[in-house]
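note to self — DONT lose this again. spent like an hour looking for the file last time. sequence + predicted structure for the chain T wanted, 409 res
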Amino acid sequence: MQSTQSASQAGAIAAGRASLLVMGAAAFMVSADARVIDPLLHIIANQFGTTVARASIVISAYALPYGLFQLFYGPLGDRVGKLRVMSWCLALFALGTFACAFVPSLPVFALLRFLTGVVAAAVIPLSLGYIGDKFPYEERQVALGRFMSALMLGQILSSSLGGIFGQYIGWRDIFLLFGVVSLLVALALNREANRFPEARNTERKFGRGMFLPYMTLLKRPNAGLILGTVLIEGFFVFGGLAYLGASLKDRFNLPYGQIGLMLAGFGIGGLIYSFSVKKLVKRIGDLGILVLGGSLLGAAYIAIALMNRWELFIPFNILLGMGYYTMHGTLQTRATELAPEARGTAVSLFAFAFFMGQSTGPIVLGRILETSGYPAAFATAGMGLFALAVFARVLFARAGRRALLVPDV
């Protein structure tokens, strides 16, 4: 392990860029914190005396500011340095996560999750912008795939740990653990920022004109197509994902520890994608990957809606993870080329759209859940994602390679 880490750091130094390992660790903590509530949602609802659909406010309360504040951190990262902004925000994130262990009520919990989402918003999009700055396009999707594997591992372990803590230790204690580890990662990230100082865009101003770059970006060819697609993707994917754990409890009465382990399959599916992405890009191109991902997502959600045995959830959830990362990876790669001269801003706008969908999806699908049940909610998500992939494929192809500003590989 040490030799691998040393080799990674040596390669980073030679290339004049921070290690993907350190940025991946930061992304791991943010990803783990975002998804750790999924297996705990039923427990949280019971403790605070409310329904699962209403307790999901703690998920939306995190995702909403996470999306909104992308618009702030993009220009800030371009101006003062992406690594430095990430390290500061991750330190505040650690404090907020630690405090979640002591909440006395659901409204206070939602407020703390909101504040934590505000600072968590900096980590992943600025990491993606940094990768876009430091890796040439032909190497970027592979680098992004490796970086995304950290997010997948975060989801795998957070789901498992959430279920185990919920059943055997206590759901609050998981936030103590995440807070301490996040602070250690923030210190390591700050060290990377000092080792690899970034060129700063001192012309970027804050105030009334702060959001002008976003207005300019929206005028780029196919910006609306990329942003609209990822918004709808986030709406359906995470609208259904929020209720997978609760559905296993209500439909099959499984123990929370088992539910957490089963939910980890989503991240395993993502790892399968990361190992196969290079071959997929060569064989079917990025638009083929887009349709493949949407098809896998649609099939998995509909299968989960119709299943009558809990054992079937395991392969279906792995398929769900494969579909999500397959589809999202294409959109993410294209987003890094929206504005090569200001990737932090471009990726932040992309993440803003994505998390607007992610924050509203659980609310809308929660209403379907309350009126028609889990199968209807999951089937809605599946059909929506399949239709989205097909229509997006047609629109991207119609737009053409020149308008997209991205070489079709």
